[in-house]
């Protein structure tokens, strides 16, 4: 990926895929991780972004229609990663708890493996996880006949050279 393609704020398409393409979330993680590393991001910011976008990709595949695209573009303060699908409906955003997402409840400690497996098998935690990983810097926007689920990453400290600032 050529970071200079992001100078004008226009999105760069990192990857396109269709319904039923095997391994789409894994491929999205690899492509995004490489692109963010190329842009000067590292460590936890890359792993958090990759995990959040993987969840958005999985949601798009499960709840929307393809084809799909993974976009990256720059604003004045952020790099925005978007997962675009062809279902213009914005999903209902669940309310988010104020505290830590999986903080233990004092009265409910224990439970062993069965309790852990029951928690992990529950569905509907994806957007909560995205919210936690991005510090709330995520959302949806409508496009013509489509929508984009996005996350925002502050520009990396080492990004001045990559972005031509």
Short note summarizing the structure:
With 165 residues, the protein is of the alpha+beta class. It is built from five helices and five strands; from the N terminus they run βααββααββα. This is Histidine kinase/HSP90-like ATPase domain-containing protein.
Please explain how this structure is put together:
With 165 residues, the chain is an alpha+beta fold. It contains 5 helices and 5 strands; from the N terminus they run βααββααββα. It has a 5-stranded antiparallel beta sheet with strand order 1-2-3-5-4.
The proportion of residues forming helix, as a percent range, comes to: 25-40%
Order of helices and strands: EHHEEHHEEH
Report the mean per-residue pLDDT as an integer.
Answer: 81
The shape is: globular
Keywords: Kinase, Serine/threonine-protein kinase, Transferase
Domain Histidine kinase/HSP90-like ATPase: 26-134
InterPro entries: Anti-sigma-factor_SerPK, HATPase_C_sf, HATPase_dom
GO molecular function: protein serine/threonine kinase activity
